[in-house]
Design brief:
- The protein has about 350 residues and is of the alpha/beta class.
- It contains 14 helices and 8 strands.
- It folds into 2 domains: about 200 residues, NAD(P)-binding Rossmann-like Domain (Rossmann fold, 3-Layer(aba) Sandwich); about 90 residues, ProC C-terminal domain-like (ProC C-terminal domain-like fold, Orthogonal Bundle).
């Protein structure tokens, strides 16, 4: 499908369609073609319809070829009910994609955001659009400050995690508190978008529907978004380190590596299901999995003696602290967030 055929009506443009953007686009297409779009996680109402037209942009020729190959069935769909995809790259790709969209999903590297918004023509094209950002550290206020000449632009801040690649993300969607009588933040939040209006319920519902295609969503107030950056975003890496340690320990005791990996990952999947689907509190799962004098209790005692619980909690607190520093850097601060403090 050529760019000229993508109408502005019901069109979602994914700017910077890398790993995360591709995962979201793939999830959206599957949800529509398989009729499996779940309703927004916090609402029992019928979710708004997803766009039928998508535009994805990329800077690299290799990425353009990869995306074109991956989404070939959607480039020139013969069935009118099949969503269409346009892949763009080149110096004017982002501008064209924004001009032809009603909703923009901003998936570029957070470090590239100031350069992205430095283009006056691009800023003008954002007027009247809904911009959904997944950039960690960039608040609505910081993003609005870069687009002073698009007063009717609306921005929603979101934070998916890497599990979107397999349709298992937990995505935070920021819902600001009501504005005060002077247009400021009625709840006194430090993160304020000035006189810009809050997202409408329809905007929030559409955003929930989009991210429900790659997992679950959670509505979060601005004051908790920094913590969510770590709690939702860092946890997969923390779990990966723990899983790797379990596998290495099994290998050290003579268990074949491939078998150890299969066993540990399935055990983790089962434990998650017991807590999430079975409703077990983590402490209850621990109690039910141990017996007096048993091997599990023996192993747990070593973990407790070495301070696993406190170390993990301290790691999470540090991740949240660094996430806060990332936000301050995005708003013009200087420094290296992981330096000694």
């Amino acid at each position: 499908m050529s760019a000229s055929n993508a109408t502005s009506e019901q069109t979602l443009s994914i700017i910077g369609c890398g790993n995360m953007g591709t995962a979201i686009l793939n999830g959206l297409l599957k949800a529509q073609t398989q009729a499996q779009t779940p309703p927004p996680s916090t609402s029992t109402s019928t979710p708004p319809p997803l766009p039928k037209s998508y535009i994805a942009t990329t800077r690299r020729t290799t990425s353009y070829a990869k995306l074109t190959n991956q989404f070939t069935p959607y480039l020139t769909p013969t069935n009118p009910d099949t969503p269409s995809v346009t892949i763009l790259h080149g110096p004017h790709a982002n501008l064209t994609a924004i001009q032809q969209a009603t909703t923009i999903l901003l998936c570029i590297d957070p470090a590239d955001i100031p350069t992205f918004f430095a283009d006056a023509a691009l800023r003008a094209a954002l007027s009247g659009k809904l911009l959904i950002s997944i950039a960690a550290g960039w608040t609505r206020a910081a993003l609005f400050a870069l687009v002073p000449d698009a007063p009717d632009l609306q921005i929603i801040r979101t934070l998916p995690n890497m599990a979107a690649l397999v349709g298992q993300s937990i995505t935070a969607i920021e819902v600001p508190p009501p504005l005060g009588p002077t247009g400021g933040n009625a709840a006194g939040e430090s993160e304020s978008a000035g006189n810009r209006p809050n997202p409408t319920d329809a905007h929030i519902a559409l955003t929930q529907t989009i991210f429900s295609a790659v997992g679950q969503t959670q509505l979060i107030p601005p004051a908790q978004m920094t913590a969510f950056t770590a709690v939702g975003g860092s946890t997969p890496a923390f779990v990966a380190v723990f899983a790797d340690a379990l596998i290495e320990g099994a290998v050290a005791m003579g268990f074949p590596r491939a078998d150890a990996r299969t066993t540990v990952l399935q055990a983790l999947r089962g434990a998650t299901a017991l807590m999430q689907e079975g409703g077990l509190h983590p402490a209850s799962l621990r109690d039910q999995g141990t017996s007096p004098g048993g091997c599990t209790m023996g192993g747990l005692m070593v973990l407790e003696e070495r301070g696993l619980r406190g170390t993990v909690a301290r790691g999470m607190r540090e991740a949240v602290s660094v996430a806060g520093l990332m936000g301050r850097l995005a708003e013009g601060g200087e420094g290296f967030v992981n330096g000694t403090r």
